Amino acid sequence: MTTPSTEHHAPDPLAADGPPSPAGTGRTTAGPVEIHCPTGGWLPVCGPGALVPGRGVAALLPDGAQAALFLDRGGRIHAIGNRDPFTGAQVLSRGLTGSAGGRPFVASPLLKQRFDLLTGDCLDDPAASVPVYRVRVRGAAADG
Question: Which letter, b or e, does each residue of 107-137 get, where b requires 16 or more Cβ atoms within 10 Å of its Cβ?
Fold first, then answer.
């Protein structure tokens, strides 16, 4: 029997599913937070309780890349690449979060460039971006 899931993710040009879903009220009793890997399949990363607004969590993906997960103040979970394209360091999970124009971002802890958590685009240099990953919470309860 398959456990239902609630997906939380930034819009992905390759994804056919819609906008991010708000976190369910059952977040603390839900299964793991999972990232959809570029190579296919879902990878369990952490329990929902490990995600705290304003703090990131880093995850090692099967292909050797790293992802940074964030819970925004609206209860949505976002995952982007952890590698800062300006320095090459795997540090975005340690960045400062905020919002600009109603869109959540993380600022690199090194040079402070801001990356949109919905698109991966750099808000300070349009030539730079980081990957965005789909995220879901396994077995999350529906809002009700």
Answer: bbbeeebbbbbbbbbbbeeeeebbebbbbbb
CA distance 43 to 36: 6
Radius of gyration for the alpha carbons in the chain, expressed in angstroms and rounded = 14
pLDDT digits (tens, 9 = 90+) for 78-132: 999 999 999 999 999 999 999 999 899 999 999 999 999 999 999 999 999 999 9
- pTM attached to this predicted model: 0.77
Beta strands of the chain (E only): which ranges?
5-9, 33-36, 42-46, 56-60, 66-71, 77-81, 96-100, 103-107, 114-116, 132-138
Residue 24 and residue 137 in contact, taking contact as beta carbons nearer than 8 Å: yes
Question: What values do phi and psi take at 92, rounded to 5?
Answer: -60, -25
